[in-house]
């Protein structure tokens, strides 16, 4: 893969436009991430039904799943409906909406933990840090593109935003799944020890 192909992939990831049919487009990446969070949510619900899920992890996974499903749906609507240049320009305000959604989810997670949970799972801390990072970089991108119309100036920031945002999102879902894998491993070890005795 040469630098031109990498540059094209990054352009596909960063810019929302209806003609972008690449598997690396913002629409497809949002879809992949939403599917991963749906799977995490279903896993969390099943573990909660079996009384194996911690309340803290359930709150965080539920909130993050709702967030990524909602933001993925919004990205899909914009990508499918933005046809004219004016609509595409107006669609760049989605980054402000994303920052507000992230802030609401962050406050929800913190508030519920303060009111009802005495135990804070490690996913809680990763989610809080990740959400604050996303809020900050989304607000800066919204100011850059949506307010000051610096779409082509400071183009490096668009790439930086995309890389950091996707990295944070994928890192959080990976941490969730590693946590579930560790739970499963401990469960299997307990069962094996019980059957050996």
Layout: helices, strands, pairs:
Layout: H1 3-14, H2 26-49, H3 55-81, H4 85-91, H5 94-116, H6 122-147, H7 155-196
Helix pairs in contact: 1-7, 2-3, 2-7, 3-5, 3-6, 5-6, 6-7
What features would you highlight for this structure?
197 residues; mainly alpha; single chain; 7 helices; 82% helix; elongated
Structure description:
The chain has 197 residues and is mainly α. It has one domain (3-196). Helices cover 82% and strands 0% of the residues. The chain contains 7 helices and no strands. It has helices spanning 3-14, 26-49, 55-81, 85-91, 94-116, 122-147, 155-196. Helix 2 (26-49) packs parallel to helix 7 (155-196), helix 3 (55-81) runs parallel beside helix 6 (122-147) and helix 6 runs antiparallel to helix 7 (155-196). The longest helix is centred in the C-terminal third of the chain and has 42 residues, at 155-196. The radius of gyration is 19 Å and the shape is elongated. The relative contact order is 0.12. The model is unreliable at 16-20 (pLDDT under 50).
């Amino acid at each position: 893969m040469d630098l031109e192909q990498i540059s094209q992939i990054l352009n596909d990831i960063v810019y929302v436009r209806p003609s972008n049919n690449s598997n690396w487009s913002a629409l497809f990446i949002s879809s992949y991430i939403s599917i991963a969070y749906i799977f995490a949510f279903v896993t969390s619900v099943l573990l909660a039904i079996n009384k194996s899920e911690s309340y803290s992890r359930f709150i965080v996974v539920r909130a993050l799943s709702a967030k990524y499903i909602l933001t993925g749906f919004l990205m899909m609507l914009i990508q499918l409906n933005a046809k004219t240049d004016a609509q595409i320009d107006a669609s760049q305000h989605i980054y402000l909406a994303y920052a507000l959604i992230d802030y609401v989810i962050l406050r929800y997670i913190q508030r519920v933990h303060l009111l009802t949970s005495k135990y804070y799972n490690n996913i809680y801390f990763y989610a809080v840090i990740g959400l604050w990072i996303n809020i900050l970089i989304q607000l800066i991108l919204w100011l850059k593109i949506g307010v000051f119309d610096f779409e082509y100036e400071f183009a490096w920031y668009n790439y930086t935003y995309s890389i950091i945002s996707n990295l944070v999102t994928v890192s959080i879902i990976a941490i969730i799944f590693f946590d579930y894998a560790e739970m499963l491993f401990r469960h299997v070890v307990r069962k094996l020890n019980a059957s050996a005795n």
